[in-house]
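Open question from group meeting: does this chain pack into something compact, or does most of it stay loose? Before anyone orders reagents, we agreed to write out a predicted structure and look at it together. Recording both the input and the output here so the notebook holds the full record.
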Amino acid sequence: MKHLSKEQVEELKEDLIRQRKKLLDHLNEQIKDPSNVTFEGGDEIDRADLEEERYITFRITGREARLLKKIDYALDKIELGTFGICEMCGKEIPFERLKARPVTTMCIECKEYEEEHEDE
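Structure tokens returned:
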């Protein structure tokens, strides 16, 4: 993390903590949402609409849970002093990239390479 100033690391850490809190608040709201209660009334179309809504909510919640894990991982890396280093090539990840996507674990070149070779 030598390429990042103490202020930059602190700014990124605060961004991650804010994003984490927002996600946790949203996930807690999903748990309290009355639409998660079993729906007995209505016709087949009402039940189908409710099931579709639940499926979409479940997918969003799953995505948010994965993002939460990435945020926690980034916060752990900050504490360990390994944040901002590409896990693929070991290069320093520029502050601008980290600011745009603080959960990233790869420099832009390695990420592009990974995306180009995903289907192989």
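Observations to bring back to the group:
The radius of gyration is 19 Å.
Helices lie at 6-32, 44-80, 95-100, 108-116.
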